[in-house]
Design goal:
It is a single chain. With about 190 residues, the chain is mainly beta. The protein has 3 domains: about 1-65, Roll (SH3 type barrels); about 65-125, Nucleic acid-binding proteins (OB fold (Dihydrolipoamide Acetyltransferase, E2P)), CATH 2.40.50; about 130-185, Nucleic acid-binding proteins (OB fold (Dihydrolipoamide Acetyltransferase, E2P), Beta Barrel), CATH 2.40.50. The chain has strands at about 1-5, 15, 20-30, 35-45, 50-55, 60-65, 65-75, 80-85, 90-95, 110-115, 120-125, 130-135, 150-155, 160-165, 170-175, 180-185. Strand 13 (about 150-155) and strand 14 form a beta hairpin. The mean pLDDT is about 85.
């Protein structure tokens, strides 16, 4: 299916130069002179190689149709994730690198949505938020108010994030998997 280059979004799968690519990032750049263009960072689905490509916003690209299927994460085997199909209970292996920077947020028995193009996995989506424990947080400085800046903290999965001053070591918080940002205190 043809689409204009300015409609390319992260997570889409496109065909370019006879190869399939998954879009990692896109940015529309408007230079001082001349027309705007879109810069796309993408990964080759077969080789895993990354590249950057530029198109004018009016150019067209071939977008491949993806099917979504839900799986449950079982365990990691080397560089692959072992997932179980909830309907057939068959196990599938997909490259862990499809998760990219979201990999540390993967948890046992987590439900994942896998994007497939003609049966081949091209992308993996975690739930939008996860609950993690704070294992390290700076103490509150006297006179610091709740409306002041956030403080650094380390999560139980090793990822660093910024939290409000009232959050302390040992507390469980809800974190956005997309960018590791604090959402709220975990309930219960």
């Amino acid at each position: 299916m043809k689409q204009q280059a300015n409609l390319i979004r992260a997570g889409q799968v496109i065909e370019h130069d006879g190869r399939r690519w998954t879009v990692l990032k896109q940015q529309i750049i408007t230079p001082g002179k001349g027309g705007a263009f879109i810069q796309v960072e993408m990964r080759d689905l077969k080789t895993g190689n990354k590249t950057n490509e530029r198109w004018r916003t009016a150019d067209t690209v071939e977008r491949l149709q993806t099917d979504e299927k839900e799986f449950t994460y079982s365990y990691t085997d080397g560089d692959n994730l072992v997932l179980m199909d909830g309907e057939t209970f068959e196990q599938s292996m997909i490259p862990a690198e499809l998760l990219g920077e979201a990999l540390p947020f993967l948890q046992d028995n987590m439900k994942l949505v896998v994007d497939l193009v003609e049966g081949d996995p091209v992308g993996v989506h975690l739930p939008s938020t996860v609950v993690l424990e704070i294992v390290e947080a700076d103490p509150v400085t006297k006179g610091q108010t709740a409306t002041s800046s956030y403080k650094p903290a380390k999560l139980s999965n090793g990822v660093k994030t910024m939290v409000p001053p009232f959050i302390e070591t040992g507390e469980r918080i809800v974190v956005r998997t997309e960018d590791a940002t604090y959402v709220e205190r975990a309930k219960g």
